[in-house]
Amino acid sequence: MTNSENPFSEPSKLPFELPPFAEIIDEHYLPAFEQGFKEHLAEVQNITSRRDMPSFENTLVPLEQSGQTLTRVARVFYNKSSADSNDFTNELEEQIAPMMAAHEDAIKLDSQLYWRIKTIYDQLDDLGLNAEQRYLVERYYTEMTLAGAGLSDEQKEQLKEFNRELSVLTTKFEKNLLADTNDLAVVIDDVADLDGLGAGEISAAAEAAKERGLDGKYLVTLVLPTGHPWLSDLTKADVRERIMTASRSRGSRGGEYDNSELVLQITKLRAERAKLLGFDTHAGFVTADETAKNPEAVATMLGRLAPPAARNAKSEQKDLEEIAGHEIKSWDWAYFTEKVRTAKYDVDTAAMRPYFEAEKVLQDGVFFAANQLYGIQFKERKDLIGYHPDVRVFEVSNEDGSAVGLFLYDLYTRDSKRGGAWMNELVAQSYLLESPVVVVNNHNVPKPAAGEPTLLTYDEVNTLFHEFGHALHGLFARVTYPKFTGTSVFRDFVEFPSQVNEMWMLWPEVLANYAVHYQTGEPMPKELVEKLEASRAFNEGFKTSEYLAAALLDQAWHSITSEDSVTDVVKFEAEALAKVGLDNPAVPTRYSSTYFAHTFSGGYDAGYYSYIWSEVLDADTVEWFKENGGLTRANGDRFREKLLGVGGSKDPLEAYRDFRGRDAVIEPLLKRRGLE
Ligand SMILES: [Zn+2]
Asked: 20 to 30 A Cα–Cα from 113, which one of 27, 187, 271, 449?
């Protein structure tokens, strides 16, 4: 294939440089990656082969301009391989992983490049650079140092080998998990076993079975966390048990999709790599380049939260056992929680779903809140197409009509999509490259049968707001350098804007605008809303415990040193959880090791703590909005200007101080989660 035939060889001519999905076929990816690697290396070589003294203009600027073909193909490919994969892209992803790792190493470990950047870094005060430029130099210097650019050649070879092996193992982990998750979907023969589910869910289960050639049966497809959303509704305990057992056995059943050995190999290799880079543990290495700075800070924070969370879960369990009349098992928790919620707070979350019709939630809830805060408008562009027929494209513009970017929306679950919900940047903003912005939100909402409405659960509505917070972070970027665009911030900071956006879900003006009955058009009854508010801290002991268990497990796996030898995943996991008092069998960890994609394949290694870390900022920001009048343009504009638009172009805690007028405090989080 020649260059001119490959749609990745130049920027797209479509509005906002939307990737030309109609032209892209699977066979384009590999040649584009190969071309991208080659070009990028040549561009870097043009920098390092210069004979003049290093300067910002002759080093950092061309570095930031380099690798554009690779960026184009990688952004589209990794979105495709997570949102609409097939056998071809799965194989290709495995093939590309080590190539990508080797390519990144070749640049990050380039001694000549490191020397140039270090030279600039050493005279940082004398160069007359602006704040963003200075920060760019600092970030490159820190990242390359941590990547090992200062190591000897021999050590670098060793490091590259670690990186290559790790990329293969983590990719394998992810593929195993997807395959095992599909295999473990629970087949239900008799519709009576689905008692408790709504008509929409039952038709979704029938549809899922049909897609697998199981006509007349029902399929409960597993989702990523341990707890399946239907466990709160299914009345038959044995069916709930089957689903929970399937969910928890992912990656640990023996056979070709077992991830146990991979967990041991990955954590061992990460510990060895950390040692080579001068750290005792992988957690030490990772947190050195986060806002947390070291594992002790993480341990202190998690340690402060774990005991009260475990205690609260225990007391919740008592309430559940009282109403159930028997001991509560892990598969009973969600079910009896709904019963207690109904009894104690008289809140029936199932009764809310008719008020959460997906399109209304999106347009009159998520978009409406953004319009009230930021003045932005949304127009569906049916003339533009996404990477799958289900994907919808919206053009986003400011109040004055000026362009913001494109927002792609991919709501429904399918076998080709990985679990969870997330945001991707398909085209990322920067002034240097005059680049527009295109972002996508992916969800895994079951698709109802044709003609049926999509009625969301409470959690799904929350997730829509959450992911759109990430989308805004990407859409509002206004940075000069591509490195800093949108969500390119520290991992323990990146969840902060998305968590803040969740606050608008129940904000009275927003809720009133979208939560209307899909048939009658009646607003959600006021009592329902008030009870919901009153019951918000309810079940927080469970939710905090299952999350903290996973976060601590992630830290534990990455606190092993290269001398430690762990041989038993189950035992290690049990001991790690017992040590922090989060080993209540009725409250399983949100993810067990063998299906903990965040930490073993998802880029959250030693970083799953980030969610609660950034929630400190989130809860403190929610207080700020409340203190200042809530949903107003003035508040939105301030948040957009001081935080969202800044992306990664300045120290995030400094950006936070600019916005808040002080550092964040932890009290609002403790209060929110009932942990005071
Ligand atoms: Zn998120």
From this structure: 271
Contacts of 3 (CB under 8 A, 6+ apart): 9, 35
Question: Smallest Cα–Cα separation from 445: which of 208, 190, 184, 243?
Answer: 208
| Whether the Cβ atoms of residue 370 and residue 468 lie closer than 8 Å to each other | yes
**88: in domain:** yes
Could you tell me which residues come within 8 angstroms of residue 603 by beta carbon, excluding any fewer than 6 positions away? 491
- Asked if 506 and 361 sit in the same domain, the reply is yes
Q: Which helix (H) or strand (E) holds 238?
A: helix 237-248
Based on the fold, state whether residues 277 and 137 are members of the same structural domain.
no
Residue for token digits 């870094």? 121
pLDDT category, 465, cuts 50, 70, 90?
very high
State the Cα–Cα distance between residues 523 and 536, nearest whole angstrom: 20
Cα 320 to ligand 1 centre (Å): 30
Q: What's the confidence (pLDDT) of residue 425?
A: 97
Instruction: Specify the length of the chain in residues.
Output: 676
**Over 70: is that where the pLDDT of 1 sits?**
no
pTM for the whole structure: 0.84
Q: Are 352 and 529 in contact (CB under 8 A)?
A: no
- Asked whether residue 272 falls in the same domain as residue 210, the answer is no
Considering the domain architecture, whether residues 575 and 503 belong to the same structural domain is answered as: no
Helix (H, G, I), strand (E, B) or coil at 511: helix
Domain match, 404 and 470 both = yes
Number of other residues whose CB lies within 10 A of the CB of residue 390: 16
pLDDT over 70, % of the chain: 99
CA of 134 relative to ligand 1 center, distance in Å: 29
Give the domain range for residue 100: 3-150
Query: Under 8 Å CB-to-CB from 433, ≥6 apart: which residues?
Result: 64, 65, 68, 482
- Calculate the CA 571 to chain-centre distance: 28
Residues 230, 329, single domain; the answer is no
The pair of structure tokens assigned to 49 is 């082969």
Q: Tell whether the model's pLDDT for residue 437 goes beyond 90.
A: yes
CA of 427 to the centre of ligand 1 (A): 19
Number of domains in the chain: 4
Q: What mean pLDDT is predicted for residues 138-146?
A: 96
Tokens matching residue 634: 């003035």
pLDDT of residue 223: 86
Rounded to 10 degrees, the C-alpha dihedral 560/562/565/570 comes to 30
Which residues carry out catalysis? 467
| Distance from residue 405's CA to the centre of ligand 1 (Å) | 20
Q: How far away, in angstroms, is 463 Cα from ligand 1 center?
A: 8
Residue 318, number of CB atoms within 10 A of its CB? 9
pLDDT at residue 4, rounded to an integer: 63
